[in-house]
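check this one:
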Amino acid sequence: MKFTAEQIAGILEGTVVGNPDTEVSKLSKIEEGEKGALTFLANPKYTSYIYTTKASIAIVNNSFKPEQEVSCTLIKVEDAYKSFSKLLEYYNQVKLNKFGIEQPVYLSDSISKGENIYIGAFTYIGNNVKIGENVKIFPNSYIGDNVVIGDNSVIFSGSKIYSETIIGKHCVINSGAIIGADGFGFAPNENGEYTKVPQIGNVILEDFVDIGAATTIDRATLGSTIIRKGVKLDNQIQIAHNVEIGKNTVIAAQTGIAGSTKIGENCQIGGQVGIVGHITIGNNVKIQAQSGIGRNVKDNEVLQGSPALSYGDYNKSYVYFKNLPKLVKTINDLEKQNNGNN
């Protein structure tokens, strides 16, 4: 799809300097620009590239004044970075702007669906599913019985949404995510064998939740596993049964959260963090990558390490740990000196 400089300037409320009919059909970094590409200049460190880039159109700040000839058409805006981000969002909407029901698909006769939806080929949608308006379900997806999908949500290819899951409005489920699989519930018997405990709860995603690729969220044993409004989960995260994550919390890749743990609002959790079950983590908590959390955490704590310490204590301890060989040598030298004096 091609856009002219004039069309782009209209979207961004910018001013064209150069040929308004210049066309672009792709995006690029300014140092990798090529003919037919749109780029932007926001960081002054990259100013030199505006004179050498082969991109056809560049978005720049109103304050930009070229010191030599610029070959590309410029679009001047108040904030080049924000404008380029806005354009990326617009481009993404256009790219994903699909409607209709492809074939082959399986749709239960008992589903209800809103207007302007898209259902990709080889998708299965079970009984009593409710699909809101402007929902997009990409090919090879599985939607189990009694699932609810709110308006403007997107489910990408290969996602598996198990029965009874409730997905809010404006949610994004990326490819390979599994929502609502059985929680890890087993009870040992007298022979040391494990019997499965039925998991009959569900998963609830509130509005504006993003789920990364290959992330798994288990259904509750009883009740619900709940992901609150605005939560953002990275790829390959494991959320166990009956976990609750407070609104606007963000979690990076490969983190695992064991069953029945409650995490507060506005938390930031790094990659590869391990969190035990049945604990409570407060609001505004920050946990550094690869930390292990085995206790309740109060509001506003910053933690690092395994088992995790307060961030300040961890850094102080690390200084001592790093110097441990020198400290041991010093102690040994002192012992030798003391023995020699005796």
User: Anything to note?
Assistant: The chain has four helices and 40 strands. The helical segments are 5-12, 80-95, 311-322, 324-341. The CA atoms of residues 31 and 45 lie 11 Å apart. The longest strand covers residues 57-61.
